[in-house]
Amino acid sequence: MTSDQIRESFLKYFESKSHLRVSSSSLIPVGDPTLLLTTAGMVQFKSYFTGQSEPPSKRLTSSQKSFRVVDIDEVGDDTHLTLFEMLGNFSIGDYFKKEAVIFALDFFISVLELPKDNFVATVHHDDNETANIWKDNGIPTDKIFIFGDEDNWWGPAGLEGPCGPCSELHYDRGAEKGCGQQDCGPNCSYLQKGSDLLCDRYVELWNLVFMQFYHHIDGTRTTLPSPSVDTGLGLERLAAVMQDVKSVFDTDIFVPLLNTIVKITGLEYGIDSNSTYSMRVVAEHARSASFLLADGVVPGNEGRGYVLRRIIRRAIRHGLKLGLNKPFLGEIYRVVASQMGVAYPELRQHQDFIL
Ligand code: GLY
Q: Which atom of ligand 1 lies at the shortest distance from residue 231's CA?
């Protein structure tokens, strides 16, 4: 399946389960001064979870463009991106844990036809209930892993907001892809064999957050009006699994961008690790800079403007390593816009500004 088909099948699946499809919001969060950029699908729905405003439906679904500043320096490995699309289904005081688990398994196994045996689940150490739900739905006990707050608590996005324990589905790419250590598992902290990168046998795909609390700026927590669900499934990682490739850069999302870089540099991709890394950085940052510009961010010395400036500079630095001495980001933007301009029309509407 192409990434466009995966996105559409996700949204259609949740529409068939009575969810209202909602467009992605801007990368500039509205009404949330504590948040620099939109980091997840739930950001535009914060006031629904808190009861401050009424949702158009208690069940929502979206594909949200999201930006994570913390990952800038990781970009170039197989999985990290600054900009990614987060597929999500949301229950605003409607269904809770059981339905969220059933929907997730049904979409992966019945719709995408991924093998059930390849999935493992992680749960928060206080959440026996969800561990039992996975078991009841065919995930055996030895494939359910318990973690603490660091891995299985999500939120708030920004300094305050809804949060709660979460449960994740990871995809097992097979022992031969792993570090070989006896206790290799999801969130593995060993290194890949002969590399300084972390073991990536298990790919974290879908995070199911059971929203129950509001985290206040002073660190206290109060309960939300009703238990709710917020999920996040990274489209690029799912595309890598569906297209049976090792890296997000080998998916249909990045191949056309990398082909353009190959064309303008005259270099081959995947031959030398340094140039491969630089090509990935250029492709990813050109894409994420295009999206930030499309939402009206301009390079500057602080806040969002500084984030944009950092990624443009990093792209140029890696471009120079590839021998690109003349402006090149505009050419890559044109490929981003032609590829993603249907799903995200702002990329085309603001062409002159972006260029
Ligand atoms: N809001 C859920 C996630 O970002 O994983």
A: 2
Instruction: Measure 232 CA to ligand 1 centroid, in angstroms.
Output: 5
- Return the residue matching tokens 């930006």: 67
Enumerate helices (H) and strands (E) in the chain, giving the number of each. Answer: 12, 9
**Ligand 1 touching residue 42 (CB < 6 A):** yes
Read off the pTM.
0.95
| d(CA 315, ligand 1 centre) in Å | 27
Exposed, middle or buried, 261 (CB in 10 Å: 0-12/13-18/19+)? Answer: buried
Distance 209 CA to ligand 1 centre (A): 7
Query: Cα–Cα distance between 342 and 28 in angstroms, integer?
Result: 20
| Region of residue 20 (phi > 0: left; psi between -120 and 50: alpha; otherwise: beta) | beta
Structure token digits, residue 138: 């065919």
Task: Report the amino acid identity of residue 153.
Answer: W
Are the C-beta atoms of 10 and 23 separated by less than 8 Å?
Answer: no
Instruction: Show the CA angle centred on residue 312, arms to residues 278 and 269, nearest 5°.
Output: 20
Q: Rounded to the nearest 5 degrees, what angle is found at the Cα of 169, between the Cα atoms of 289 and 223?
A: 85
Q: How far apart are CA 124 and CA 130, in angstroms?
A: 9
Considering only CA atoms, which residue is closest to atom 3 of ligand 1?
Answer: 232
Per-residue pLDDT of the chain (355 residues), as tens digits, is: 999 999 999 999 999 999 999 999 999 998 788 899 999 999 999 999 999 999 999 999 999 999 999 889 889 888 889 999 999 999 999 999 999 999 999 999 999 999 999 999 999 999 999 999 999 999 999 999 999 999 999 999 989 999 999 999 999 999 888 888 888 899 988 888 777 777 888 999 999 999 999 999 999 999 999 999 999 999 999 999 999 998 999 999 999 999 999 999 999 999 999 999 999 999 999 999 999 999 999 999 999 999 999 999 999 999 999 999 999 999 999 999 999 999 999 999 999 999 9
Query: In one letter, which amino acid is 98?
Result: K
